[in-house]
Amino acid sequence: MGALAGALLETSCVRKQFFQADARPAAALAQPLPIAADSVRGATAGRQYARHGSFYNALIGRHHRPTWAAPVRVPVLNLATARPGGLHPGKVGGGFNSTSLGLTNTTSRPYVIRTVDKDPIRATPEAVRGTFLVNVLRDNISSTNPYAALVVPPLARAAGVPHSNPRLFYVRADDPAFQTDSLRHFRGQLAYLEEKAAPPLPVGAPEPAAVVSSTKAFAALFASPGQQIDQNALLRARLLDGWLGDWDRHPGQWSWALSAPTQAGAATLTPLPKDRDMVFYRLDDGLLGWLLGHVALRHWVTFAPHYKNPSGLMSSGHYLDQRGLNGLSRAQFRTAALAMQQRLPDTLLVRALHRLPPAAFALEGPRTIAALQARRARLPELADGFYRELARRPRIGGTAQPERFAIHRYADSTVVIVESAAAGASEARLLRRAFLPSETKVIQLEGLAGDDVFTVEKHGTNAAGKPAIRIYGGAGNDEFRAANGGSRGIRFAQESAPAKRAYDKLPEE
Question: Does residue 365 have a pLDDT over 90?
């Protein structure tokens, strides 16, 4: 009990000097870093996370503490030579955790540098910022692997998923470009330099007409049938998320490449994943960490050889998945998983994990490779569970333009077809999918705006009355027709779906 009380007292109030003052070891700080130094040795991403004893680690969790404190060799950032033409400081930004700095370049796309270590104090209410809760949140950063983002690029490339190419640097404490007070969190720390706007598309893909946020992408999707999500590309990206254990995939973690419309079809929205901080996350290796991950915050899922709580693992991306994967069948989910297995051989896993700094690889490399191999073998199982979760209550929406929704009831299935009825629409058919009563309980259709037409037709005397279908016409003067007594199990309402659950509710980033 005394040890428990000591651990709790240790975090009873916020520590003002929580973070390491400099990534370089104390012995090296006795002398200034030479101006011509191109790298530093013995740097650590965050040695403060490894200051605890065995009891604390058993209670809270060992997490990735040794990796944060592992000494690594890192190149020194030089903005003048980091990219051809040099980089120039721009606007300071960052989310709730990280601090970032936009960098401009006259010869290529803009870049951003962001700290490896995080400070979640901005995500806490003002009332608790002076309490032990800040220490708890800060210490929980040790659940992340500071170098995991380095592993992702070759794996994503092989899986056919767009990716950034982060490079690890040490920011000199005396770098003139980082002397303003707003940039004090960079000085003497490790940071990632990467493309700012969005990850580039795979080799061979056409240059997008625009790169937009999730909010703008879905606003365009709901406005007109002229924009459609590349559902197969999103499925590949989401299976990669699950395989890597990257649970933090809310809409703010994505950009979207909008292609130019063609005469043959609509413009395509291709998903561009961002921010890989939660890859290889480890939380439940301590008593309180286990309780937090299994009871309080079940979507904070620990990376392990098997998929722990797959539903929670994929839940942060539910908004995207529900609207961006609703046209794919169970067979397509399985095919995507089998293809990904083939694209991720053992030789690639070994090469990718060796992108970790040597000291970090010694701590985590072999067991992470083994875990990725085991998870790769279970990818079809993950994909099938992911499909079944989404298939239980699918939602299909139209746009602000008129559409035709055709519902065909058969003895063993219900087929839904959505076609554009707008004048001059470039792509008539928006969706066609068969739903099985064994998989689907309720299908929700939303016409949104426009004068939509909903038709129901029963095929054969034994046509099923399940799954149930709920139709919301939305704004517009809609029409509902049921032929051959096919309205059993179907409910039509002219009004829009409830606002909080509406198909066209814009994502929160």
Answer: yes
